[in-house]
Amino acid sequence: MGARGLPRGYALGSPYVIGVLRAAGGPYSVAAPSIALALAQLERGAEALQAHVARIRVERDQLATRLGAWGGGLAPRPSQANFVLVECGPRAQAIRQALADRGVVVRDFPGRPGLETSLRITLPGNAADFERLCEALDAALAVGGPRP
Prior knowledge:
By secondary structure, this protein is an alpha+beta fold. About 50% of the residues lie in helices and about 10% in strands.
């Protein structure tokens, strides 16, 4: 998630590739505030963008390690994105709800074959929000039911 929970993303590529992407469209339109935030991030320059990407990589590794250490059916999948997809088994909805109760929204995939018991946890990209995410996750996992 972006600042204040606004999703954003962008693609960089040749005019041809961007043309193909525009023609194909996406499953969801991008809201104007999300576009404004993405442009503001780009305007900060390459150094700031590289620092943000480096921070996301660190958070991704730390979160995957933390989830893997919990055991009990939690299985983070390899990622190169700004999120971690984690298989949670039968505790997925209890964990999702416990996170929501703590103000952390994660994406679930009801009705999606192969993903029904997975959660997508987006990385915030800053230390304070990452710490808040980890604290909420620790509490959510503690109430997400006993480890199998």
